[in-house]
Design brief:
By secondary structure, this protein is of the alpha+beta class. It has 6 helices and 45 strands. A hairpin with a 2-residue loop joins strand 8 and strand 9. Helix 3 runs antiparallel to helix 4, helix 3 runs parallel beside helix 6 and helix 4 runs antiparallel to helix 6. The N and C termini lie far apart (101 Å).
């Protein structure tokens, strides 16, 4: 505001560059010319004003909208902030509720951090930026606020030149008719700015320009920082989670020696599960180390066998690779929901999922060739396996020296029966050779351009691109021409093959094939009178035909589709399963078993991690874990 002293009473009254020779005192009502020195100074300021670019006294269209729509813009930014925060808030709220409902524990703190930190960070930073933005709008508005009227009914004055503003607008921005400067005429803004306006002409336009430039970046900065924070907050939350986990893991907690676990009988040994009372019964849980088993396991009071954690002291449990180790100490930290067993050698193991060594588990051999085992068979007292390198190896099933019978070298497919081994050599010839294991491991050539092979009991079935053959002593016998052959398996009575999006069953004795199923299959297997095929996971369909159902072992932790190494013996199916990692938690390998048409009920070698091959006789089960050949008694 430009002001000068009244020549009559000395009070300070506003003056205008539009009329330098006129002063109207609001106190003594003097109307006339101010002091000549003031007039000269006003003329000098007027000349200086015209030297300044008019655009520097005006707001851009975007800045005008910011000032005129400040309240609506704040509501819009708050709505955007809520939209960005809502998904994070819902996820965090749900996870928090889950952990609170599931017995909140100090070990849950890292997960609560992950759930609640992102929405809290986004909301906090968003509200701070919104406040900064609103403050910038207010500073800009006060910087170019008009001078309030001297009396009701009088016009507001231009904050640059002091000329009266003739516009009747009561809010928003009005442009001065004399100097073309923009003025904010909202009454609340003018009152706030009245005491802050200055007489210094040289700094007035600089202040307005600085505030306008600063504000033009506020809106974009607010939006960008909010979105960037929303994207970065999960990463920051995970880092905080890791830090919180490390801190909690380093803080010891008192071990409750009377903490109870369920002792479950699994294939001839005892494994320990967490225990929770539910209704009139109990729930025992072996997960995450046994995700393929039904979890939780419902137990009645009569079925429940309880062990206290202090009773595990001095007992042995199995480590990975079937290594037994004695429990020497119990341990727990603030980051653990369950007590850990400290074993000889310093290994630590959760009680939940720990298993005692099976009493009948025996290591029969440790050989480098076992590490690349691809198929295994029992015949009488002899155990035979085929390696990835093409070796056919035999040893007594009770243990002893192993000997290599034959080495076919490079191959792309192999199959093994009790008396024969079959191999397909690589492209381009794809030659099929059969080795008679009971006749001094003699080899004979069968046919070229072979793509698929399988043993139907003692007989070999194979196929090329479009034909299915049976290997007979007189030579190959064509069984059928299915078109484009994609996969082939067999049992003692039937050949099952996949061609042109259909599953066919063909009797070994010949005849017409039957369509038993349709659909694309990315894997094929057979166990007893059931066909296993990969279709959106794993499906099972009766050999006689009928609706498809889910595989007993269709859990993703085991496989994505059936593998040919699954085999059947006396009405049961056996699945060698190598250990993999699910959500960074290693689950158990070993050999899984279930009745044909039934569900999983047996698990051999629960700490085996590199299972390649397995075989069964009427008394024992044999399997390879890395370079080790193991044997256990079949569970009755």
């Amino acid at each position: 505001m430009l002001a000068a002293k009244c020549p009559q009473c000395g009070a300070v009254s506003p003056v205008s560059l539009a009329a330098p020779e006129h002063l109207h005192c609001r106190y003594c009502q003097y109307a006339g010319s101010p002091d000549p020195a003031v007039v000269a100074e006003l003329h000098h300021a007027r000349a200086a004003l015209w030297q300044i670019d008019t655009g520097r006294r005006q707001l851009s269209s975007q800045q005008r909208r910011m000032v005129e729509r400040a309240q609506g813009q704040s509501l819009g930014l708050m709505a955007l902030l809520a939209l960005v925060s809502l998904p994070l808030l819902l996820c965090g709220g749900c996870s928090t509720w889950v952990f609170i409902a599931d017995d909140l524990h100090t070990s849950s703190l890292p997960f609560l951090v992950v759930g609640l930190f992102p929405p809290a960070l986004v909301l906090g930073l968003g509200l701070l930026l919104l406040r900064i933005h609103r403050g910038g709008v207010q500073r800009l508005a006060r910087s170019c606020a008009a001078v309030p009227p001297s009396a009701p009914g009088q016009p507001a004055l231009c904050h640059v030149c002091g000329a009266p503003l003739t516009s009747e607008a009561s809010r928003g921005v009005v442009r001065c008719g004399f100097c073309q400067a923009d003025n904010v005429v909202a009454s609340d803004i003018m009152k706030q700015a009245a005491q802050q306006q200055t007489l210094v002409m040289s700094s007035m336009h600089q202040s307005i320009t600085t505030e306008a430039t600063r504000l033009s970046h506020h809106s974009v900065t607010t939006l960008l920082l909010t979105l960037v924070t929303a994207l970065a907050s999960p990463v920051l939350a995970l880092l905080l989670m890791c830090g919180a986990t490390m801190v909690l893991k380093s803080i010891p907690a008192e071990v409750d020696e009377n903490e109870e676990y369920a002792a479950l009988s699994i294939s001839g040994t005892t494994c320990f599960a967490s225990l929770e009372r539910k209704g009139g019964g109990y729930e025992a849980n072996l997960a995450p180390r046994f995700p393929h088993r039904p979890n939780p396991i419902r137990l009645t009071p009569a079925e429940l066998k309880v062990v206290k954690v202090k009773d595990l002291m001095g007992r042995q449990v199995l480590l990975e690779g079937n290594r037994p180790a004695k429990v020497v100490r119990l341990e727990r930290t603030q980051g653990d929901r369950h007590t850990k067993l400290v074993l000889e050698g310093g290994d630590r193991f959760n009680v939940r999922g720990a298993c005692e060594p099976p009493p009948n588990l025996t290591m029969l051999a440790k050989l480098p060739s076992l590490n690349v085992c691809r198929a295994m068979q029992l015949h009488g007292d002899t155990l035979t396996w085929v390696t990835a390198a093409g070796e056919v190896v035999q040893m007594p099933k009770a243990g002893g020296a192993a000997r290599t019978l034959f080495n076919v070298g490079a191959h792309i497919e192999r199959a093994l029966s009790e008396r024969k081994a079959a191999f397909i050599t690589p492209h381009p010839n794809r030659e099929l050779y059969v080795i008679e294991l009971t006749q001094g491991a003699t080899s004979r050539f069968v046919m070229r351009d072979v793509h698929h092979l399988a043993f139907a009991g003692p007989k070999l079935v194979f196929g090329n691109v479009s034909q299915v053959y049976l290997d007979e002593e007189a030579g190959p016998v064509r069984l059928h021409s299915p078109g484009i052959l994609q996969a082939l398996v067999a049992n003692r009575t039937h050949v099952v093959y996949h061609a042109q999006s259909k599953l066919y069953a063909l009797p070994i004795t010949g005849g017409a094939p039957r369509v038993i199923g349709t659909g694309f299959s990315d894997g094929l297997g057979i166990a007893g009178d059931q066909v296993l095929f990969g279709q959106a996971g794993c499906k099972v369909i009766p050999l006689a035909g009928g609706p498809a159902g889910a595989c007993p072992l269709s859990h993703a932790a085991i496989q994505l589709h059936p593998e040919r190494r699954a085999f059947e013996h006396r009405g049961r199916v056996y699945w060698p399963a190598a250990k993999r990692s699910s959500n960074h938690t290693p689950y158990r390998g070993g050999v899984l078993s279930h009745p044909v048409g039934g569900s999983l009920d047996r698990h051999y070698g629960p700490t085996s991690t590199q299972v390649q091959c397995a075989a069964v006789d009427d008394e024992f089960i044999y399997w390879v874990d890395g370079q080790t050949l193991l044997r256990d008694k079949l569970a009755q």
